[in-house]
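Good morning C.,

I know you're traveling, so I'll keep this short. The sequence:
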Amino acid sequence: MITRRTTIKTMAFSAVSALAIAAFLSPSAAQNKELKIGFVGVTSGPAAAWGTSNVRSMQARADWINETGGVKIGDSTYNINIVTFDDQKDPKRAIAGMEKMAQEGIHYVVGPNVDDGAAAVRPVAESKGIIYFPYAFPKELYVAPASNAVLGMIANYQSGPAIYKYLMENKGVKTIAFVAANESDPLSQRDGGVEAAKALGLEILADKDTYQNDTRDFTPVMTPIVKLKPDLLVLSGVAPANAPLLIRAARELGYEGLISTETAQDATVLQEGAGELANGFISVGGASTPEIRSPLMDEFIDRYTKMFGEYNDESNTKVYALEYILETLKANPAAIDNVDEYKKTMETFSAPNPYLKDESTLKYIGATSFGQKRQISVPMVVTEFKDGAFETLFVGEVD
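The tokens, ready to paste straight into the viewer:
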């Protein structure tokens, strides 16, 4: 039976709890301003792992920053609020998501995760004063007159040549074949891979084989390619959910060569979908391997894991976007609501990289690939899948 006395006790307990929570937080937390950072990208469907690692990285890092008092930018201190929008890998929804960000007064957005979405939101971003960080590779997004997109990772035309060259020198690869989903994003990555392979002098055995993204039986797709017996089979732009199915089909058909991709993957999905058949699969991994990561990165991984119950190696790369945004704003507080100021700051920006143990810096790159600095610098880590986990194959960098 609920009595007046019980109610009073409950109210008193609630008040004490609220005071305890307030005391736990930084004393200045209540006075902190709010800084909204957006995310527009895919968090559902076959490519969900790409966007999910983005969102979780941002949320884990933002919570950590807020827990320790917020971030000081100029004369003000801010708590970070991550505003998310699942575009479902649909360009029209990506546009709606970016318009939502503009309506909320958000000037800095992470995503989208695919080429179509990144291209679709460009007019909104440029007209509404939004800097966005796509995980998409078309050069026209980053080459003038485009100026609002900043590539958030290593592009396939940067990692592909490095992977092929390494395998030529260390594994004796001489022939190569490509297969891609019949969509603009993977087809574009395939064409970039073919161009790189030609430049390196590899013999290209197949570069026209495609499949529909909703395919689940890949045996008919892989049969003619396996018969060609390429030294290296490249799964161009493969979505994490499709990678294990393609690998399984190739191995069960008797393919014994190497398999690689230039897109980041999910070790759990590979293990669940292909098991030991995925051993040896080569992909671009997270930007901080155990060999090079700092104690702060170790703590980030621990916090992320506790927050979500698992960890995605790709988040070693995805954690960087938010860090770059905040550090650039700290370098020029006028950029907090003026993206033109942000662009000016990018030209000379430099800050310590908190995620690597050796002395290294956060800086904007891309002059070689795009003619202007429209890419964040992260280590290029190439990994090999083995028994449920990724192992570092080699580490490189991009100018």
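Safe travels,
E.
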